[in-house]
Amino acid sequence: MESWKTYQAEAKSMQDRVILVTGAGQGLGATAAVELAKLGATVILLGRNEKKLSRTYDAIESVGGPQPAAVPMDLAKVGEAEITQLGVLIQKEFGRLDGILHCANGFNHLSPLANQKLDEWVDMFRVNVAAPFALNRTLLPLLQAAPDAAVLVLGETHAFEPNAYWGGFSVTKSAQKNWIEITASEWDKFEQLRINLLVPGPIQSPFRLATHPAESKDTLPETGAIMPAIMYWLGPASRGQTGQTVFFNKK
C-alpha cells in the first residue's frame, strides 16, 4: 500500500493554516473538516445547506478546534459576484488561505441518457468543474501568498469507468482530470503551490448509499479510512507533487 494512504499527520501539523472545504455539510467533506480542525487548521465550511453546515461547525467546536466559519453557498447557482465576495471575505476575516478541499459533489440521479435533461447536466458541470475552477481562480492570489498551499479535488470512480446510467455525472467528473492537469501545468512556476485529484473509490458515504442502496456497508472502508490520505495531500508532506490522479480504494 502506498505510504500516503496510511499517512499519520503530526499533531497540530495544520496549525495556523486556513483551509476552505466545499461540500462541508456531510460525508467526506464534513469528516475532513473536523479532522483538519483537530490538526489545528481554521476551516471555512462551504455548503448549500445551513443546517448541515451548523452540525459540522458544532462538531469542530466539540473537538476543541479553532473557531470555524460557515458560508452557505449553492455551487449549482453561484455567480461571479458571490465568488468574488467570498474572496473578499476570506481576505478580510483571515488574511490568508493555505488550501482548498473540493468535496462538493454534483449528482442528480441514475437514469438512461434518454431521460436526462439539459439543466441537470449543466448543474452537475457547474458543481463538479466550473464552480471549483472559479473558486481556484478567484482565490489564487491568497494561495500564491501562502508559504505552502495545496488544492485537493475529490474525484469519482465512474469518471474513469463510464457505464450505463451514470450519464452526465460521469461526463462532468471526467472533466476534472483535464482541468487539474491544466491548472498544475500553469502553476508549475509556484513551487509552494500544488493541485491533485484523489479518487476515493467505494467507501462508506451518503453518496455511496444513495447510488448503491443494496450494498452492505460492512464491505466498504469507513469514511475515516481515507482521512490520512486527505491530510497527506492537503498537508506539507505532499509538497512538490502536483497534477497527479491517485486512487484510494480502486476495485
UniProtKB/TrEMBL annotation:
Sorted keywords for this record are: Oxidoreductase
Tell me any Pfam family this protein matches: adh_short
| Family annotation (InterPro entries) | NAD(P)-bd_dom_sf, SDR_fam
- Entry's Gene Ontology molecular function annotations: oxidoreductase activity
Q: Which family does it belong to?
A: Belongs to the short-chain dehydrogenases/reductases (SDR) family.
Which PANTHER family does the protein's record reference? ALCOHOL DEHYDROGENASE
Q: What is this protein called?
A: SDR family NAD(P)-dependent oxidoreductase
Tell me what organism the protein belongs to: Chitinibacter bivalviorum
